[in-house]
Amino acid sequence: MSYTKVIPGLVRANSDNIKRICLSQGRFRSTVASKQHKEVEGGKEEQQLVECTVVKAVQADLISQTKNNTDAQTRKIAIDFDNTHEAYKSKDNIELLRSLLVFKLCTFDFLVDKNKELMDLSKKVFGKRLFERLMKMTFYGQFVAGEDHNSIKPLIHKNQAFGVGSVLDYSVEEDLTQEEAEKKEMDSCVSEAEKESPGVYLLAKCVDHREKKYKAHRQFGDRRGGVVSARTYFYADEAKCDAQMETFLNCIKASGGASVDGFSAVKMTALGRPQFLLQFSEVLVKWRRFFNLLAAQQGKSGMDALEQKLELEQLKESLTKLGVGNKDDIENWFTGEKLGSSGTIDLLDWNSLINDRTKISNLLVIPNVENGQLEPLLRKFTVEEEKQMKRMLQRVDVLAKHAVDNGVRLMVDAEQTYFQPAISRLTLEMQRIFNREKPIIFNTYQCYLKEAYDNVSVDVELSRREGWYFGAKLVRGAYMYQERSRAEEIGYEDPINPDYEATNRMYHKCLEFVLEEIDHNRKANVMVASHNEDTVKFTLGKMNEMGLSPTEKKVYFGQLLGMCDQISFPLGQAGFPVYKYVPYGPVNEVIPYLSRRALENRGFMKGSQRERSLLWKELKRRLLNGQILYKPVY
């Protein structure tokens, strides 16, 4: 499998086993985002509309896709998110009443806090058949499209008729107790060597070199804790991973058959044993930290990731002094390619020093700063663990190839920070292979992370150098409470931005950077996955400034099914590529998903009455106009 070549390249190896990825040179723009960033608060920068129409257009210059000197004309588009006729024209009155009921129920703390117990009780009292009918009339009908890929087609086709696409997501989860979840997590995140003889296989005279963040901790073994908007998978065995891969394959096929240019969502933790993701993440973080240490030695600490350019000769001297390799070895690392041809090495050059070795576990090598040696994270991996690592990569490869074959784009969801470096790296390797002709693989960036901007800018720069299509989904993040609690209790730096305002600034900074990349190079693509109306308005304002037309389909918008229709449908009807995250699965098997939707909507609805007020407004408008039996026409 070609993208298993993700192994740090400072490992001493037989030269016959080494294959380096060569980065093409070219003329690149600055990687620093514009400092003329202007915040949008409450949509103040957006032109207010007095007409009833959903769209208002004015003339503006278009930046040509070929970047020639020909002046073209397009129209600036502003969306009226208060136009309830356009926002809800795809819904009949029963659907509006259902939304009002569900959103109102989500504001009652007792019902939300005890929603799982109440659903279990209802099932016992009413029986399975009546319970399922009640769920389809309320929560299930609001947030879930149907039970299988055939039953969801009517909803997908209806949304498409009103300009809204689909990101299919089979949302079935195991209904585990906390104790069961903790046991599964501990069993799957600790190597067999550590289980058999704790300390014996650890490095440097039995001193544990593993970092606390990247080790499993029983008190946080249930990764569902404090998470309200993301599915969670727990490893059972390889057969279960194969079954989950088949589920994703069916989802990809359903997406290809039900919609044009659809998306399908996948999670890496469903495809293999998380031990590998933990350990690979630790290796990647330590190699980056090693680069930062070398940068600090050259007086270049505290700079943006891509602004740290190490003087090559000084770098060679530092590596030699640290004993990482002898002088000839180090010289060979930076010769025979364009690496260091400018006299400097940046983070991407550093990351490209990778090799291809027979054993996947040989990738788990870290620099020991104290003695300068490259050492394995653990001294022993079983044959079965080697196979498990390879199988995870093979499953990812199968999914990517099926996405290409079915004309579907693959959205890789973000997960916890102790898994995410590995997930992002594996997704990046998929992009390098499958995004050569068009964007197929999309990575997810969580903007509540302090390092979000560095992650986005580094990946964009790599796509620019190597000439493939960058694909990103920007989200605020789903694991904040869990991440903060874990960092505080275990004892490492909180990875989350200090407050919501800081997260908003980070989101807009990352978004602006990608939009500027689209402006300069039409190979970048971004999904603005947000229920925040101000963020959507900010994006529209930037698109208008850049003359970026929605018909170019470089900027997508995404919201969850059953939420924020007043954003999704006006955008879709104005010609913007907008998608609903469409969960599906049997009623009884998506209850964990529905439970989280109730929890998420509790905060969402308490914080804003806007969606409910718009629903009432449209319902009253229809009743006053005699549209009691209103049916969508499409």
Total number of helices: 23
Tell me the quaternary state: single chain
Strand order of the largest sheet: 4-5-11-12-13-14-15-16
* Portion of residues within helices: 40-55%
Radius of gyration: 25 Å
What number is the mean pLDDT?
A: 80
Which percent band covers the strand fraction?
A: 5-15%
**How many runs of DSSP E, i.e. beta strands?**
16
Structural class: alpha/beta
How does this structure look, described?
- This protein has 23 helices and 16 strands.
- Helix 2 (93-105) runs antiparallel to helix 23, helix 10 packs parallel to helix 15 (383-405) and helix 11 crosses helix 16.
- With 634 residues, it is of the alpha/beta class.
Features of this protein?
two-stranded antiparallel ribbon; 634 residues; Proline_oxidase; 45% helix; alpha/beta; acetylation
Reconstruct the topology from this structure.
Elements: E1 7-8, E2 55-62, E3 72-79, H1 84-87, H2 93-105, H3 109-113, H4 115-137, H5 139-143, H6 153-161, E4 164-170, H7 178-189, H8 192-196, H9 203-206, H10 238-258, E5 263-266, H11 274-297, E6 310-311, H12 312-322, H13 327-333, E7 344-345, H14 347-351, E8 354-355, E9 365-367, E10 374-376, H15 383-405, E11 409-412, H16 420-434, E12 441-446, H17 452-466, E13 470-475, H18 480-490, H19 500-520, E14 524-529, H20 533-546, E15 555-560, H21 565-573, E16 578-584, H22 591-607, H23 610-624
Parallel strand pairs: 4-5, 4-16, 5-11, 11-12, 12-13, 13-14, 14-15, 15-16
Antiparallel strand pairs: 1-8, 2-3, 6-7, 9-10
Helix pairs in contact: 2-23, 10-15, 11-16, 17-19, 19-20
Family: Belongs to the proline oxidase family.
Function: Converts proline to delta-1-pyrroline-5-carboxylate.
Catalytic activity: L-proline + a quinone = (S)-1-pyrroline-5-carboxylate + a quinol + H(+)
